[in-house]
Design a protein that fits this description.
This protein is mostly helical and about 400 residues long. It contains 18 helices and no strands.
Length: about 400
Amino acid sequence: MGINVIGLAVPFFLFFIGLEYWHCRKKGLNHHSFAESIANLNVGIAERLTDVFTTGLFFYLFTYIYKHFALFSITPHWYTWVLLFLFTDLVWYWYHRLAHEMNIFWAVHVVHHQSEDFNFTVAARITIFQAVVRSLFWSVLPLIGFPPEMITLFLLIHGLYPFFTHTQTIGKLGWIEYLFVTPSHHRVHHSSNEEYLDKNYGDVLIIWDKLFGTFVKEGDSVKITYGLTKPLERHSFLWQHFHFMLEIGYALLHARSVKECWKIIFGKPDNIDPANRDKLEKLFFTAPPARTKNNKAQHTYIIVQTGVSLLLLFAVSLLEKWLSVAQLTIFSAFIIVSLINTGAILEQKKWVFYLEYARLIIVLGGIGYLVQETITVTVLLFLAGVAVCFFRTIQNYYCRYLFDIVDEQQG
């Protein structure tokens, strides 16, 4: 068994994220905020991690459709690769457009538009739910008759291009603007300016937007505001993923007819009352969004946690064929809890300390399961006992280290 070369995508994209950040710092461009960048990376880490478990399932789905329902038998030639490119990009356009026009799809796509920054980290802000939905759309490709091997290889290549359209550092690109999606076009798409809403859905080619009437050119004098029309204002990892699903559920609970339920599920996001989110936040949160910036200790701790999560993600992605299901589960559980942990610290939540104990249990339990030696298990049980006996002492030190400076500033 060899390494999974797809795992190399992690350092590849991180290199360009770092390069863009360095360029912006050098030029004095304020295109990155700490909390937004970390939140974007957290979502991307989770999506890439779950891809380890789901990519094979998508290939199996494509293979099953191709073998049992393919309308034609298409073989690899230069012209069939061109056709695959055009079909893939067209399917993406309609998936993307429907993801903005139907609540059931917007619920999984909204996460990508939550960031109020616009830089390469936003390209990573893709959820596993979105990956599943768009793969269902791409299932039309094996139905037409494209072999699963062609589809899978092309989707890997096709996925590289849109990463580079998520930036403010590249201006307009002359004649390229007429054919391809450029950063200028995609800045319009991520804008919450009224004149730019629901425009420029293309992934690689901009011709579909021009053909179907959804194209708008970026104005030279328009100041773009990024993010949702009703900003999320929270960095909770779980809330980012599930808030709109909960808003749909809340609206359905208060619907008065089948027709209204239909509009809530298949209608536009405008059919969901924005006040629903405020009501749900009062139910799930005990305080409004934190307005205090993270202090130096939190910055350091979050950066270290994110770095560890990225290293583990790289190892899991690269070596997944060498790891057992148990090992993959242990590493994945640690990463997911770390992502929730980071989001809670960004939100100044002191209950985050209990997540630290959850991570400790995962680490100790994982070592015990993998090693299974009497002396090792004994030492691990001793460490667990110490952690329980000195719970309050450790908690006080932890909270003083991470939160006392913030409390003093708040008075």
